[in-house]
Specification:
One of its GO terms (molecular function) is ABC-type transporter activity. It is a multi-pass membrane protein. It comes from Clostridium oryzae. Its main location: membrane. With 563 residues, the protein is of the alpha/beta class. The chain has 2 domains: 297 residues, ABC transporter transmembrane region fold (Up-down Bundle); 223 residues, Rossmann fold, CATH 3.40.50. Helices cover 64% and strands 12% of the residues. The chain is built from 17 helices and 12 strands. The strands form 3 sheets. A 6-stranded mixed sheet has the order 6-9-10-3-11-12, sandwiched between helices. A 4-stranded antiparallel sheet has the order 2-1-4-5, with helices on one face. The chain starts with a helix and ends in a 7-residue tail after the last helix. The protein binds adenosine-5'-triphosphate (ATP) and magnesium ion.
């Protein structure tokens, strides 16, 4: 019940800025319902006037009834226009809010979700919420008005029958409530399978090369088939519960129908009602049946929206680590790790009591076996992860700034793996510095040894790359990623195996160019190549959750000493 209350409050919060549009839709819906009731009453008068030979009144009533029909048509057309505008606006609004939340969420929290799952939440769950606001709620209001109006009209025509209907009708609603609880469980499961389905398709397409080279095409097709079967059986089970709930409701309406028809026929036989009253009662019972079957159909939508609300609230509840405060410009940026502990899971430390000191302008290499925690070490500096113990700060002479999301403004980072976007090479380069001038772009490309291969292309910087840089080699993609980071011009530069696909000569060339940059950034380079170490001032070795610092100059003098 508490969940239902929080979901309802959340939905109302979303709808609030669109009150004006929603009021138009709801009032227009309620108005057409009243017109419907009015038409039933008018039809009674028409039949009665016809049976009592009052021709002039008959013509007048025909004109009035025709006018009600035309008014209803016009109002419905206006509602369609307003609700589709309102629908897209609400959908944009929710997606905008969610997207900005997702962008600003703590990275460590966000990585718990699969991209396909986030996509499902941002599309079908948002659709479910939007529909409930712009369609289901207004329809429920107009059905309620139709129901109440028809009941009142019925009370005037035949009070006993009216009261009987008022007593009988809630029974079906009560029964359907029992099934709504079951339907919600189905809906949540269904959305989970939907996420699994999308995630699987997403990953299969993204990793097409692996699929093809591992000859997994057929296996993937049959996995998809299995997920589809799961989806089908859940849909069938859901449909069974839904059908049962609907049958119970609909049989309730039929009981009402026979009651009215039989009772009315008997009264007509006894001459206690007119033909007109029976006609009105029969069309009014339709107005009572309609809302009930309508509500029965809307029930799954309401249940779905509550499930969707919970899934979207979960995304909304994620911790954000975004800060829009500008980090002040630094002249020099040293990096200090002080007794840092970090573990992804309790009891399984990755880094233990790590201390490291990199002076401004120094180039430090970070080496160590795969899986030892090099990227983790960097992610802590980038405030993508937070230490369990200890401190990390950036120092400008005696001034210390604790790392946080805003200190990312001081860092240019080239992550491990291909991180290019689809678009031109220029778009990719300008990503971190959209204002950069043409000479700056050339300079960064030259420093990253990317200029020549870019220029050897007829389209040059305007060459269009596919998703994740499809269309160029791995080493070329790495050089563009390095140029992109250099163009950002920040006092700290981090290269996480960013030169792994380059030949040894080009790698040294790039590192030398970085060393000669003016002003020289403080660099951390993760590499597995010993040749690259020659360029560095300091070498950090990560081993057994710990770090050892080695001064390069000591090594050159044959004096390998760790601090
Ligand atoms: N999100 C995560 N959750 C749990 N454990 C993780 C996570 N990311 C990494 N790890 C674990 O932390 C350890 C360090 O990973 P990290 O990526 O820092 O290694 P690395 O030294 O950069 O390796 P490589 O040279 O292969 O890139 C690994 O044992 C890895 O399994
Ligand atoms: Mg790594």
């Amino acid at each position: 019940m508490k969940k239902l209350w929080t979901s309802t409050k959340w939905i109302f919060g979303i709808a609030k800025p669109f009150t004006k549009y929603l009021l138009i839709i709801i009032l227009a819906g309620a108005g057409t319902s009243l017109i419907n009731v009015l038409r039933a009453v008018l039809s009674k008068q028409l039949v009665d006037a016809a049976t009592s030979q009052q021709l002039q009144i008959v013509f007048q009533l025909i004109v009035i009834i025709a006018a009600t029909i035309i008014t209803e048509l016009i109002v419905k057309a206006i509602v369609t226009l307003v609700s589709s505008k309102c629908n897209i606006k609400i959908s944009n609004n929710i997606q905008q809010q969610l997207f900005s939340k997702v962008m600003k969420t703590k990275w460590s929290e966000f990585t718990r979700y699969h991209s396909g799952d986030v996509l499902t939440r941002m599309t079908s769950d948002v659709d479910a919420i939007t529909n409930i606001i712009t369609s289901t709620i207004p329809t429920l209001v107009s059905l309620t008005v139709l129901l109440i109006g028809s009941f009142i009209a019925f009370l005037f025509l035949d009070p006993v029958l009216g009261i009987l209907l008022i007593v009988l009708s809630p029974i079906t609603v009560f029964l359907s409530k029992y099934f709504s609880i079951k339907l919600k469980k189905f809906y949540l499961k269904f959305q989970q399978i939907e996420s699994k389905y999308r995630s699987f398709i997403n990953e299969s397409i993204q990793n097409m090369v692996v699929v093809k080279t591992f000859c997994l095409e057929q296996k993937n097709i049959s996995t998809l088939n299995n997920i589809q079967n799961e989806r089908t059986s859940l849909t069938v089970s859901k449909a069974k519960v839904s059908a049962l709930a609907n049958s119970i409701l609909i049989s309730g309406f039929w009981i009402n129908y026979f009651l009215v028809f039989g009772w009315g026929a008997l009264k007509l036989y006894n001459n206690t009602i007119t033909f007109g009253s029976l006609t009105a009662m029969i069309s009014l019972i339709g107005n009572i049946q309609g809302p009930f079957s309508g509500m029965a159909m809307l029930l799954p939508q309401v249940v779905a929206a509550i499930g969707s609300t919970e899934r979207l609230q979960e995304l909304e509840g994620l911790d954000i680590d975004y800060s829009d405060t500008r980090c002040r410009e630094l002249k020099a940026a040293g990096i200090v790790y002080e007794n840092v502990d970090f573990s992804y899971e309790k009891g399984k430390p990755i880094l233990k009591n790590i201390s490291a000191n990199i002076e401004p302008g120094e180039i430090a290499a970070l080496v160590g076996p795969s899986g030892e925690g090099k990227t983790t070490f960097i992610n802590l500096l980038l405030a993508l992860l937070y230490p369990d113990k200890g401190k990390i700060f950036i120092k400008d002479n005696d001034d210390r700034i604790n790392v946080s999301s805003s200190t990312r403004q001081l860092i240019s980072y080239v992550p491990q793996g291909n991180t290019l976007f689809s678009g031109t090479i220029r778009d990719n380069l300008l990503f971190g510095n959209p204002e950069a001038a043409e000479e700056e772009i050339d300079c960064a490309a030259k420093a990253a040894s990317a200029y020549e291969f870019i220029k050897s292309n007829p389209e040059g910087f305007d060459k269009v790359l596919g998703e994740r840089g499809v269309g160029i080699s791995e080493g070329q993609a790495q050089r563009i990623a390095i140029a992109r980071a250099l163009l950002r011009k920040k006092p700290i530069l981090i290269l996480d195996e960013a030169t792994s696909a380059l030949d040894a000569g080009t790698e040294i060339e790039v590192l030398r160019a970085i060393k000669n940059l003016k002003p020289a950034p403080t660099c951390i380079i993760i590499t597995h190549r010993t040749a690259a170490l020659k360029i560095c001032d300091k070498i950090f070795r990560i081993r057994d959750n710990n770090i050892l610092t080695q001064q390069r100059r000591d090594e050159e003098m044959g004096n390998v000493s760790y601090i």
